[in-house]
Design a protein that fits this description.
ten-stranded mixed beta sheet, alpha/beta, 164 residues, 12 strands, EC 4.1.1.112, globular, two-stranded antiparallel ribbon
Length: 164
């Protein structure tokens, strides 16, 4: 069952407290609407940390991956996304590319990314986990609440006083 919200209604309800990402993502996962507490990874053309984190219990979290907007190689594919499903992650928001898009479409997971590339990324685990990441005119911080649907991505900061 999809979460009961729309990002448009959240904007109406929360006004300027709700941060709206300007990045125009494409939909890749089987769930078009997803939400949860934010976890983050900052990496560049290396998905080792993404793979490691998605092998841990997600507890309904949304992993926001700042890949610097690179489309040179994929930061997730079918195997890593299947691991996210198995471990209870709600979704992925990737400022970068994915691969295995046909398989991703059939997984019960939200996946938003900039595009696709069949090329694998490095696996050196270079980068940072659970640090603030910024793209699309907003900053995603661990513990914020992320909401994604057909209209876009929005974040309610943990310090805003309310969350849905």
């Amino acid at each position: 069952m999809s979460p009961v919200f729309t990002t448009a209604d959240l904007v109406d309800e929360h006004g300027d407290r709700l941060l709206v990402c300007d990045t125009q993502f494409r939909e890749f996962g089987g769930h078009r609407r997803f939400s949860g507490p934010v976890r983050t990874v900052r990496c560049h053309e290396d998905n080792g940390l993404v793979r490691e984190l998605l092998r841990t219990p997600g507890e309904g979290a949304v992993l926001v991956v700042d890949g610097g907007g690179s489309l040179h190689s994929a930061l997730t594919g079918d195997v890593i996304a299947a691991s996210a499903v198995e471990n209870g992650w709600a979704g992925l928001i990737i400022n970068g590319a994915v691969r295995d898009s046909a398989v991703l479409a059939g997984l019960p997971l939200g996946v938003k990314a900039l595009g696709t590339n069949p090329r694998k990324s490095a696996k050196n685990s270079a980068g940072e986990v659970d640090v603030p990441v910024s793209f699309g005119g907003i900053t995603f911080r661990p513990g914020d609440s992320a909401y994604a649907d057909e209209d876009g991505v929005a974040v309610l900061p943990a310090d805003s006083g309310t969350s849905k």
